[in-house]
Amino acid sequence: MSATPQNDWNPGAYDRFRGLRLRPALDLLAQVPALPAGDVVDLGCGSGAAGPVLRARFPDRRLIGLDSSPAMLAEARGAGYDQLAEGDINGWVPERPPALIFSNAALHWLGDHARLMPALAGLLAPGGVLAVQMPGNFLAPSHALLRATAARLHPERVAQSPSLPPVLATDDYMRLLHPMGAVTGWETTYIQRLDPVEGGGHPVRAFTESTAMRPWLEGLSAAQAQAFIQDYEGGLEMAYPREAGGFVLFPFRRVFFTLRRA
To answer: What is the pLDDT of residue 219?
Structure first.
């Protein structure tokens, strides 16, 4: 996760949907095979949601969490890690080749995946595993409406921002990493039930405000941010109508792959 001290992540807002965000990590972990000797690294560990399950699966390994957000790392203390480090994934070099690099919903914040993924795979111990999950929902209304709202209210920001995060198709990752070892890839669309938000507002807005919405609100005044959210929520009401009882069914696609290094 990328953050600066002035614009850090909000662990409370992010963890409001901790269960929904953890389920893909569990599905990814279930596909991790037996490992060689070495450390387990939770890359982009955030608030440490995956820490307890990684510790339970690998009780005798040194478990390391890396993230760029001081607020998230503070929240991750007590989540089972032997070491927590603040740093940029792009420049990260482990002390020794890990047995597992595990990354749940973090690498979509970084660019140039054609370089990044082979570089991470190259850090592994022989027989080590790279296991990655990333959101693949960027063409869905939840994300397209963010770009459309920005285009209406702040077109200069759209011109300065990439049109889409750099997540490739699943088969592209398989082709990219095939020369380095045995690769598996899959996609899952989770139909997430989002319950009504305390204080009002659309449930999908509550889900995206701590992640996908963050870059669009950076630098806006309070009044500008409020206008942005109101415009965005108007689109969400049409794209994701509320069911009886006020909850919303929110399909969310995610991309997975694992590589065992030859």
So the answer is: 85
